[in-house]
Hints:
Elements: H1 3-14, H2 17-27, H3 35-47, H4 53-86, H5 94-114, H6 121-131, H7 136-161, H8 165-204
Helix pairs in contact: 2-4, 3-7, 4-6, 4-7, 5-7, 7-8
Amino acid sequence: MNVIEWIELMFKQYGYLVLLIGLPIDFIALPLPPGQTTLTFTGYLAYKKVLGLLPAAAAALAGAVIGITVTYLIGYKIGAPLVERYGKWIFLKPSQIEKTRRTYDKYGNKMLLISFFVPGVRQFFGYFVGIIRIPFRTFAIYAYTGAAIWILVFVGIGYVFGEQWQYIFSLVENYLKYICTGIGALLIFWFIWKWRRLRLKETKQPE
């Protein structure tokens, strides 16, 4: 049984609960079929009139909101105290966490908006912003908006392209991989550049 057949079987047995329960599990990073595949197939089922488009989108949004909020709370309530207590053993000092939080204040909200489109990053980002204790209101505004855009895009692919959804989905997935690889490479070079500038500044400071 392939992934699509398994998802279809789950929808036949549990209906909208697949979205309401499955998407939070995806965010917590347990080994289930990817959320993007599930969302696109949801759109296809809505195209086939097996599911209602609006109820499916609402269930998907609720599931995504539950999932990302749970990961944020785990990071905030459990991850942050662990880092504060044991961070020195993994070379994470409080000052480094604070620098990371300030960097997030400049760039992170935009990253949070697009993080849903990147498997792996989507599952990690909620924990991360919880650990650095971004205010919940800021997190909610950007995370929930990003979740809504993510759902709209992938449910829309299945609903608009119908029988061609797998072909269009594979194209989108491939382009996302190239785009994310390029962005990742640029970020790595940017962080190296920033780190070298910081090191040079520290070596030039008078003793």
